[in-house]
Design goal:
The protein is mainly beta. Helix content is 13%, strand content 54%. The protein is globular. The N and C termini lie far apart (58 Å). 16% of the residues are buried.
Length: 187
């Protein structure tokens, strides 16, 4: 009787439950990540941002994006080139889908900082936000259609009109095998 009660308690706690099937998890992640397939490739175009102090900085922005781990992740690198050809901005991000939580996240690194952000896909792109002080966020909204990749960033403060602080208008330059291409062979 005690063993039956112990087994029932363990089953109720999930201790005896089977772990999720890795193949099913991977298939669900891969299917969910298809929404970001239009980003794949190499992109280039004009961009500008407002830097601390209010100055407008104009750049040539490039982005490259591609699948990794069999299509279960999207890897993105952005570089902003100054007029003299030097790199004025560089960011790296990894987009993933959490099957259990049913949400997309992006881990990004840029300008000496890192963060984890919720990413919300829509019919033509995505949005994401980062905290920008008490009662404020910066909301990025991207639209990816055909050979056009446009992203804008707005600083949104409670009780004020949004202020545009970033804009890029990129055109597809071509395809890329990055990052999954050129894997290290077994021998």
């Amino acid at each position: 009787m005690r063993i039956a009660a112990l087994l029932a308690s363990l089953a109720a706690l999930g201790v005896l439950a089977q772990p999720p099937d890795p193949a099913a998890l991977l298939a669900a992640q891969k299917e969910a990540m298809k929404v970001f397939s239009p980003m794949n490739g190499v992109w280039r175009g004009p961009a500008w941002t407002i830097v601390p102090g209010g100055k407008k900085l104009e750049l040539t922005q490039t982005e490259r994006a591609g699948p990794m781990l069999g299509g279960t992740l999207k890897v993105v690198e952005g570089r902003g080139y100054m007029p003299d050809g030097s790199v004025g901005f560089n960011a790296f991000g990894v987009i993933a889908y959490d099957v259990a939580a049913k949400k997309y996240t992006m881990r990004s690194w840029a300008m000496g900082r890192a963060g984890d952000f919720t990413l919300t896909p829509n019919a033509d792109g995505y949005t994401w936000e980062l905290p920008a002080g008490p009662g404020a966020v910066i909301r990025y909204t991207a639209t990816v259609k055909g050979d056009s990749f446009r992203e804008v960033g707005d600083r949104i403060v409670e009780g004020r009109e949004p202020m545009r602080i970033f804009e890029m208008d990129l055109k597809r330059v071509g395809d890329t095998s990055w990052p999954a291409g050129d894997a290290v062979p077994m021998r």
